[in-house]
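Hi, here's the filled form for the chain we discussed.

Project: internal
Contact: R.S.
Residues: 426
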Amino acid sequence: MYRRFVPFHLMLLFFVAGLPVQAQENPAPVVTAKPQTPPAAGPDDKKTIEATPAKIEIIQTITSSQSATSDSTQGSDPTLVSTPSSFARRINWTVMLDAYYAYNFNRPDDNANAGLLLEARHNRPTLNMVKLNLEKQATLESPFGFRFDAVGGPSNQFLLGTKDRARGLETTRLLWQAYVSYTAPIGNGLTFDFGKFTTPIGMESVDTKDNFNYSHSYLFNYGPFYHTGLRTKYSFNERVSVTGYLVNAWDSVGDNNSGKTFGATVSFLPHKKLSLSQTYLTGPENPHDNGNWRNVFNTLVTFMATEKWTFLGDFVYGNDRVTFAPQRNHWTGLAGFARYAFNDRFALSGRFDMFRDEAGLFSGQKQTLHGYTVTQEVRMMDNLISKFEFRRGVSNQEFFTASRNRLSKDQNVALMGMTWFFTNKK
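And the returned structure, exactly as it came back:
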């Protein structure tokens, strides 16, 4: 009888003795700091600075008993601090396919929707974008990070800056973003990003699934889109953060002069339902001219009125002086967004936007553009979003193309867009 229980006691003894070893081989996950953004009303979380409606990134350092337990369990063995498998688990990936069909009631001869950028094709089903995103956030616990966004499809041709196109750098359009990151152990964590990243100017993201509407406002269409250089971010607390920029120029991997563009963004959350962001960029943008500087001010507001109602505001003012021009050029943009979520699957959004191009610096002629957009969003599956939209554009000049080589002061476009994506993000 006794002999029969000896193997059982031995097995129990080895099992209990093996528990600490198992805890060391699989330590509790370290809770890392994650960007705290105001709750976005879009269908998906805003995942990065450029994707959030308010483009506010507030880094909150989280200290938990779980991470303390993990650190004490790992001890001083360097092989347990960072392993390839733990590093790989921190990498997020997303694959996205975006397609649309747009019908322009002006029936333009060139099949182009004037004033639209990523939705520029009339009466042609278009696979607009295929995108692969790889990202590992830099935190105090894991200080090195990176982000790479590879983009294919017609959209990357429209997003390529004229400066890069003129220098034959068209292959750079394949990488929408490409930068490395490091978080220094200073205070709550000072993060440095170096490479190519999206602009802080504007409310909307290039990813249509992250916006209220499928099409983009005139404020987005006339840029800027991206910068190349250094970006630094620091969060003082849960409510205030500051981001600084030192970059080559607007929409340029290289530069067209020896000057640099620099600026800053201050983000503030006075209330859990209200977020504010103010950005200022300045620097020379003319070729071989460091004397005439371009200045732009951008204000973003997000207000979560209720669980169903969300309101966004986007205001931009800029001025520039083209080389040898007698006076400075000015432009002003304004966009207002409203979204009502019936439930997790259905939402209705409206947008009004205005862009005054006083010297024709962006649109090619002196004019004031107005846009009126209504969008019905249907989340058919968790990773499949469709948007049905009607957009009306109006100008005080004959700007929009029409049939029989005519020009018109207005343009009506109906479109349907669909986004299908896969991700390991939780």
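Let me know if anything looks off before we file it.
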